[in-house]
């Protein structure tokens, strides 16, 4: 068997494995095969090219859509999935792991050639390119969806400046997305990435988590579960207070920098670990980022300060500073869970991608009249995804009795 055949068969087997752990998405695909609600709709998807994403695009295809897929990060692509999608499933996929920035954007440009009616983005790079270079395509776009917090922030900034040219649904903001994907998905897969890259013992280590949002809560919780002493760094007083009451030590980065053995940034912000913090770190400290862009750790400053830089393990670079201090960066400071592991488990992506799929159906079937704004996922879709997920897990809900429904809707009854 050739290397290429091996690769596509491996991809196919892994896509099937993920499918068996995505019952909600599979039930949508099954319904769509007869209803084909997306018949003839052109969708350009810019998402991490993983086994779970493969199942989303195959579901969209089952719904009748024509789909092209391009990567949303140069290091998150799984090449076996690309091979299987292109050669087994017939989905045009433009992606290769480890491409440079020029090729990365070149792939997005290729994807846009299909003249999408719906854009599906993770981080808003595709939307950005469409708005800057391919404005000629904008009249043909009905709407878009956005998968992650950073993308939603960028799109809301575009809306505020009056430059967003078509409506986008913030899939990230669905409760059945960020409460589970960001928290439990990022929590588990970030630790997975650090372990696969370093094989470091977490127990007894000082583990610094910068950002106590949906993702940061998950990372802190999982690191504590493995026996780490977790320090949280936050800029928002409410979230810092929440971390304190959740039992974590909370402090500012200059203090945390001196103590940490392992650092994870997950803020969506820039230079959260900056030049002055790097200089304070212990010899041997490990740095990883789980936020969307590779700007949270100032790697440029680290490279400038380093007297040498070498790859010491797969996905781990050592930077040696002037006084002999060695700092280790995982996956070039890109999303560690995708660069050094496989991303979120299928079980949790099942809900995120069910939201993506059902939102597309709502956009096409429901024909909602939308302005050039960022909109939430309809609450009914969120509730349906939660119900379907519970059903797939065989978990029963207590239904409200008619008396209880009346009681909750009235104001006449008080203290008895
Ligand atoms: N790795 C993944 O697979 C994955 C999955 C989902 C989201 N994300 C990304 O992770 C990032 C965080 O997402 P989220 O949903 O947790 O966002 P969030 O808004 O819920 O949380 C971010 C937190 O970071 C804090 N913060 C901002 N600047 C900071 C700084 N300088 N120092 C310390 N804290 C700071 C904010 O106050 C906020 O509490 C985003 O970039 C998002 O796109 C990654």
CATH class of the largest domain: Alpha Beta
| Terminal CA distance | 78 Å
Shape: globular
Mean pLDDT: 97
Model description:
The protein has 416 residues and is an alpha/beta fold. The chain is 47% helix and 16% strand. It has two domains: 3-177 and 344-392, 3-Layer(aba) Sandwich (Rossmann fold); 184-339, 3-Layer(aba) Sandwich (Rossmann fold). The chain binds nicotinamide-adenine-dinucleotide. The site of nicotinamide-adenine-dinucleotide has 28 residues, from helix 7, helix 8 and helix 9. Nicotinamide-adenine-dinucleotide is lined by residues 148-150, 178, 182, 186, 210-216, 233-236, 239, 266-269, 272, 290-292, 335, 337.
Keywords:
eight-stranded mixed β-sheet, 2 domains, seven-stranded parallel β-sheet, Rossmann fold, alpha/beta, single chain, 15 strands, 47% helix, 416 residues, binds nicotinamide-adenine-dinucleotide
Put the structure in a nutshell.
The radius of gyration is 22 Å and the shape is globular. The chain has helices at residues 3-19, 23-35, 51-62, 79-87, 101-112, 125-132, 149-160, 175-198, 214-225, 237-245, 253-259, 275-280, 299-305, 336-339, 346-365, 379-392, 402-409; strands spanning 42-46, 66-70, 92-94, 118-121, 143-146, 168-170, 206-210, 229-233, 249-250, 262-265, 286-289, 306-313, 316-321, 326-330, 374-376.
């Amino acid at each position: 068997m050739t290397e290429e055949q091996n690769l596509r068969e491996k991809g196919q087997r892994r896509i099937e494995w993920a499918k068996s752990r995505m019952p909600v998405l599979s039930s949508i695909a099954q319904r769509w095969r007869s209803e084909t609600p997306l018949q003839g709709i052109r969708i350009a998807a810019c998402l991490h090219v993983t086994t779970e994403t493969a199942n989303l695009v195959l579901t969209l295809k089952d719904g009748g859509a024509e789909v092209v897929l391009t990567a949303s990060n140069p290091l998150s692509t799984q090449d076996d999935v690309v091979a299987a999608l292109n050669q087994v499933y017939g989905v045009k996929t433009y992606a290769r792991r480890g491409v440079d920035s020029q090729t990365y954007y070149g792939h997005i440009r290729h994807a846009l050639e299909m003249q999408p009616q719906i854009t599906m983005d993770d981080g808003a790079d595709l939307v950005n390119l469409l708005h800057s270079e391919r404005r000629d395509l904008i009249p043909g776009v009905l709407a878009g969806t956005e998968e992650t917090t950073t993308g939603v922030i960028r799109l809301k900034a575009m809306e505020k400046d009056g430059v967003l040219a078509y409506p986008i649904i913030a899939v990230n903001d669905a409760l059945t997305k960020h409460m589970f994907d960001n928290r439990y998905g990022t929590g588990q897969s970030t630790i997975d990435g650090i372990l696969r890259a370093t094989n470091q013992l977490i127990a007894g280590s000082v583990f610094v988590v910068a950002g106590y949002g949906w993702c940061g809560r998950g990372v802190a919780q999982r690191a504590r579960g493995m026996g780490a002493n977790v320090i949280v760094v936050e800029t928002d007083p409410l979230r810092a207070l929440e971390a304190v009451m959740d039992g974590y030590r909370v402090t500012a980065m200059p203090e945390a920098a001196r103590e940490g053995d392992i650092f994870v940034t997950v803020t969506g912000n820039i230079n959260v670990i900056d030049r002055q913090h790097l200089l304070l770190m212990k010899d041997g400290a490990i740095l990883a980022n789980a936020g969307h862009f590779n700007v949270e750790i100032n790697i440029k400053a680290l490279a400038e300060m380093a007297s040498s830089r070498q790859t010491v393990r797969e996905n781990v670079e050592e930077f040696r500073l002037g006084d002999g201090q060695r700092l280790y960066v995982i996956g070039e400071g890109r999303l560690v869970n995708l660069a050094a592991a496989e991303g979120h488990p299928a079980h949790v992506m099942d809900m995120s991608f069910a939201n993506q799929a059902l939102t597309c159906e709502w956009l096409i079937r429901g024909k909602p009249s939308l302005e050039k704004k960022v909109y939430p996922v309809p609450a009914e879709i969120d509730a349906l995804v939660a119900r379907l997920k519970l059903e797939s897990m065989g978990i029963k809900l207590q239904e409200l009795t008619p008396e209880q429904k009346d009681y909750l809707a009235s104001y006449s009854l008080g203290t008895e």
